User: Which sequence fits this backbone?
């Protein structure tokens, strides 16, 4: 089949907010005890664009970091620390034809929104469209997980890949026999109340989540009591939080967010820091019921649920203290791909 050189192929996958359960999706905990996560995707995305070529040359580019890597043929890819995420996706899908491939994300790696894994899902979405592969959301999520954790040896769990592939509000179980995604059919008024009362604040710094996760995993394997207890508590709270949302108990959901954050901080000392603690205490004083970092911790975004009459005060206080409140809405759809004609 001749490539259609007159069209670009694009894909986008939504970033996610993880409300509770993060850490229980990191091996070996789910294989030994079973893990679960409650998360929702938002209208911030990772993108991939692909242009087929007549020759066998491969060009990879990150628009965020202004990085480019060029190869005479896909078979000559080398992992060297530059655009390895893109290279791993191309290699895993056994690309043999020439193409130009670009990526872009609405959030940087280390932001706590699952940016790296979401970008991998978007890459697979674009390559799937180009290569005409029959992948289900489960297939995409598992492939993204394998590429990151096995091929690239990046530490982490598997919740981000599933969130980006499926989209929406999901209760995701990580069981020894496999992963099960259960979409939550929340009432419309519950969703709109959450959007009204949730604040997403950028704390002004990112972190290397892999380092935190590596230490957390080491502590769990060593049987450190505080780590094991925190993971067990987070798993139980995830079920409680799911119940609160299904019943429309928004204040209860906020209180559980606070409890989850307190337990999460016991997973590793690097999950929080004095800057984050200060901003969170300020937010609670001004009217936030609860909140947590939606990723591994250490920096990036912080999610807060406020009293309805204090949302503006919490936002103003955080902005004054150096935080940046970022608007968002929930996104019900997972990874999407399409093609568009090249303009001349």
Assistant:
């Amino acid at each position: 089949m001749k490539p259609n050189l007159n069209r670009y192929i694009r894909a986008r996958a939504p970033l996610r907010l993880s409300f509770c359960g993060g850490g229980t999706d990191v091996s070996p905990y789910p294989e030994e005890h079973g893990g679960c996560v409650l998360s929702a995707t938002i209208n911030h995305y990772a993108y991939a664009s692909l242009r087929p070529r007549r020759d066998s040359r491969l060009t990879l580019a990150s628009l965020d970091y202004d990085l480019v890597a060029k190869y005479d043929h896909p078979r000559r890819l080398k992992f060297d620390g530059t655009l390895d995420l893109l290279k791993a996706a191309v290699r895993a899908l056994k690309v043999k034809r020439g193409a130009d491939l670009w990526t872009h994300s609405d959030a940087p790696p280390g932001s706590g929104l699952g940016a790296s894994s979401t970008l991998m899902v978007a890459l697979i979405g674009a390559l799937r469209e180009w290569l005409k592969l029959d992948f289900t959301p489960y297939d995409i999520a598992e492939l993204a997980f394998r590429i990151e954790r096995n091929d690239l040896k990046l530490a982490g769990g598997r919740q981000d890949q599933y969130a980006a592939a499926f989209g929406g509000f999901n209760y995701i179980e990580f069981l020894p026999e496999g992963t099960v995604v259960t979409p939550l059919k929340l009432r419309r008024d519950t969703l709109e109340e959450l959007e009204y009362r949730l604040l997403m604040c950028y704390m002004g710094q990112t972190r290397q989540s892999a380092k935190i996760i590596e230490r957390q995993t080491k502590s769990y394997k060593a049987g450190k009591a505080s780590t094991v207890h925190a993971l067990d508590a987070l798993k139980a709270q995830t079920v409680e939080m799911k119940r609160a949302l299904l019943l429309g108990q928004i204040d209860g959901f906020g209180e559980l967010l606070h409890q989850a954050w307190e337990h999460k901080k016991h997973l590793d000392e690097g999950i929080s820091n004095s800057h984050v603690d200060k901003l969170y205490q300020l937010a609670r004083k001004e009217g936030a019921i609860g909140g947590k970092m939606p990723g591994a911790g250490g920096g990036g975004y912080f999610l807060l649920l406020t009293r309805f009459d204090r949302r503006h005060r919490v936002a103003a206080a955080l902005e004054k203290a150096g935080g940046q409140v970022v608007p968002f809405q929930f996104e019900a759809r997972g990874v999407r791909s399409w093609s568009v004609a090249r303009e001349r």
